[in-house]
Specification:
The complex is a heterodimer of chains A (390) and B (201).
Chain A lengths: L1 E7 L2 E6 L11 E10 L3 H5 L10 E2 L3 E9 L12 E4 L2 E2 L5 H4 L13 H8 L5 E2 L16 E4 L7 E2 L6 H4 L5 H10 L8 E5 L3 H12 L4 E6 L2 H9 L3 E4 L5 H8 L7 E4 L10 H12 L8 H9 L5 E4 L12 H6 L3 E4 L4 H13 L11 E4 L3 H9 L8 E4 L1
Parallel strand pairs in A: 11-12, 11-14, 12-13, 14-15, 15-16, 17-18
Antiparallel strand pairs in A: 1-2, 1-4, 3-5, 3-9, 3-18, 5-6, 6-10, 7-8
Chain B lengths: L2 H9 L21 H23 L1 H7 L6 H20 L4 H18 L10 H27 L22 H4 L10 H4 L7 H4 L2
The chains are: A alpha/beta (390), B mainly alpha (201).
């Protein structure tokens, strides 16, 4: 089969690789009908996340048709059924899954020993996202093996198109969880850093959940334009001071809720700070750039909440712990507990409350994937979200 | 091979896509503000260093224990001045920053022999090399960031996202449409830690 394969930094190729096979009774094989390039795939493309190996198949946002099931799937899935696959692989049986904390499933990461060493305790296995999270082959391919398939799936109504439901596997529930865990109240100003796909989903979720003001911060004009279309006030951080503008919008008090939809590859608009982070990253004295976190901690209203859906991989530096502690801020973060939200979100799409396909700006065939990675990473051609068809 | 590319091949001109990215500049590149400021900072640094090298070439050479290098250091000072003016004056500083990277290599190659033989100022040479390594790192990062900056929007590629709300109705009408959603208590934290205005409502 054809698949997008990681070969090294900025080197993804469309290769022919062996077809996946059932390896465990609870596996299913999916014929992929649509997949997307996620912003977090770019951390692998740029090789900021450790743990990738040559030959790994990329992709954790995908959907398709069930073509084969293991004996242990026990009728939970049938051949021909159309499903979206959540990016977090879940067993559905461990203590964490039973509590609804699917992204920290205790059994699905087959490289648990590595994750235990890196993070203290393992998190869930993920598709196409390093050997730290199991080394599972990803979904930017013609076929994919889904482990624990009796639980790791989202069934979707036939009347909804692939593009309407594809993002249920990652960015839509990620944006939703980011907004929900911020405990948004009707009096709140919610500031969201990053107007990429997750930021777009987050700001719409915050609006639906009833925030008084939703403010989105970025420097890319087309992304800010899409954020405004979704009802956000926008701040172009290349043109104006984020802190000054947020204080102006909140009567000098700061936003009650701050959401980091950027993560480890943040670009500070302050040259010295950015140069400091780039140099430290280059000489491996830090792995992630924390400029968004620093700004959020500084500008957030005391007793506010910081929600962090943006992906971080390792160590950060110069976090203003004094401000965080003395202002009594709460941090809520984590990979998304996708299946916890999807029943509700499917209904919202089906009811017409939101159509997540608004974010798609580029459609291409799978074999155009390598160039689409570059287009997306470099924000060329006003690219915000790419959907690939095998 | 595209027509344009084959035409370039025939004319002997290098294909831009085959050149190292540092040396390729595109007037439509839109570097982020931090990279722009870093480039500007390096421009002023170039001018400062250039003036120092021109004015104090002899003293620097003595400090390095390499007195015969004084004319070379003064010449490098002129080079630094030209690069600084180029960086600060050009609409696209990418080639000038790339020139700085090449200049750094030249500086290192000039200073490195000072570590050999009986130079009594080897410690100063080592300090100079560490400083050069740091400046080189900043130059390389800046050159990379400039050459990889996204393209500025133009009429040709400009897409209109003003209607991309994702909502059936206008965005303002959707504010609070999901207000009935009850966030799971374990996700929003302990009730006792929520604002009293909410818990006592």
């Amino acid at each position: 089969m054809r698949a997008l394969v990681w070969h090294g930094t900025e080197d993804i190729r469309c290769d022919t690789v062996p077809d996946p096979k059932i390896e465990d009774d609870r596996d299913a094989i999916i014929k992929v009908t649509a997949c997307a390039i996620c912003g977090s795939d770019l951390h692998l493309y740029d090789h900021f996340m450790p743990g990738m190996e040559k030959g790994d198949v990329m992709g954790h946002e995908f959907m398709g048709e069930v073509v084969e099931t293991g004996k242990g799937v026990n009728g939970a899935l049938k051949k021909g059924e159309r499903i979206v696959v959540p990016f977090t692989i879940i067993c559905g049986e461990c203590d964490q899954c039973k509590r609804g904390y699917f992204s920290v499933c205790e059994r699905s990461n087959r490289n648990k020993n590595i994750a235990d060493k890196a993070f203290g305790h393992t998190t869930a296995g993920l598709f196409g996202y390093t050997h730290l999270t199991g080394g599972y082959q990803g979904g930017q391919a013609e076929y994919v093996r889904v482990p624990f398939a009796d639980k790791t799936h989202i069934k979707v109504p036939e009347n909804l198109s692939d593009e309407q439901v594809l993002f249920l596997g990652d960015i839509f529930p990620t944006g939703w969880q980011a907004a929900v865990q911020a405990d948004i109240q009707p009096t709140d100003t919610v500031a969201i850093w990053g107007a990429g796909p997750v930021g777009q989903m987050t700001l719409r979720s915050a609006l639906l959940l009833g925030a008084k003001q939703v403010v989105c911060i970025d420097s890319v004009p087309e992304r800010l334009e899409m954020a405004r279309a979704g009802g956000a006030i926008t701040i172009d951080n290349s043109e104006e001071s984020v802190v000054e503008r947020l204080n102006e919008l909140t009567g000098g008090k700061g936003p009650e809720k701050c959401i980091d939809a950027v993560g480890m590859e943040a670009h500070s608009p302050r040259a010295l700070e950015h140069a400091y982070d780039r140099v430290k990253q280059a000489v491996m004295l830090e792995s992630d750039r924390a400029s968004v976190l620093r700004e959020m901690i500084y500008v957030c209203r005391p007793a506010g909440i910081l929600s962090i859906p943006g992906v971080y991989g390792g160590l950060i530096d110069k976090v203003p712990m004094g401000a965080l502690m003395n202002k009594g801020l709460t941090i809520r973060t984590g990979q998304t507990h996708v299946n916890r939200w999807t029943d509700d979100l499917v209904k919202r799409i089906d009811d017409g409350q939101i159509d997540p396909s608004f974010v798609i700006t580029h459609r291409a065939k799978l074999d155009q994937g390598p160039e689409m990675y570059k287009t997306f990473r470099d924000k060329k051609d006003n690219c915000i979200k790419v959907v690939l068809r095998p | 091979m595209s027509d344009a590319r084959s035409q370039r091949r025939r004319s002997g001109a290098p294909d831009r896509s085959e050149l190292p990215s540092y040396f390729v500049s595109d007037p439509r590149r839109r570097p982020d503000p931090a990279t722009r400021e870093l480039a500007r900072g390096l421009g002023w640094f170039s001018i400062g260093l250039g003036l120092t090298e021109v004015a104090c070439g002899d003293a620097i050479a003595r400090w390095l224990g390499m007195p015969r290098s004084a004319p070379v250091i003064r010449a490098y000072g002129v080079r630094e001045l030209l690069q600084g003016i180029g960086i600060l004056g050009a609409s696209d500083p990418t080639p000038w920053i790339s020139a700085r990277v090449a200049g750094d290599a030249l500086d290192i190659a000039t200073v490195l022999p000072g570590l050999e033989g009986h130079n009594p100022r080897k410690d100063n040479v080592a300090i100079a090399l560490v400083a050069l390594a740091g400046v080189t790192a900043a130059d390389v990062i800046c050159a990379r960031s400039l050459s990889e900056a996204p393209l500025a929007p133009s009429e040709r590629v400009r897409r209109d996202y003003r209607r991309r709300s994702g909502f059936r109705r206008r965005a303002e009408a959707m504010r609070g449409a999901a207000r009935g959603f009850k966030p799971p208590p374990d996700i929003i934290g302990p009730e006792a830690m929520r604002p009293w205005t909410l818990t006592n409502a």
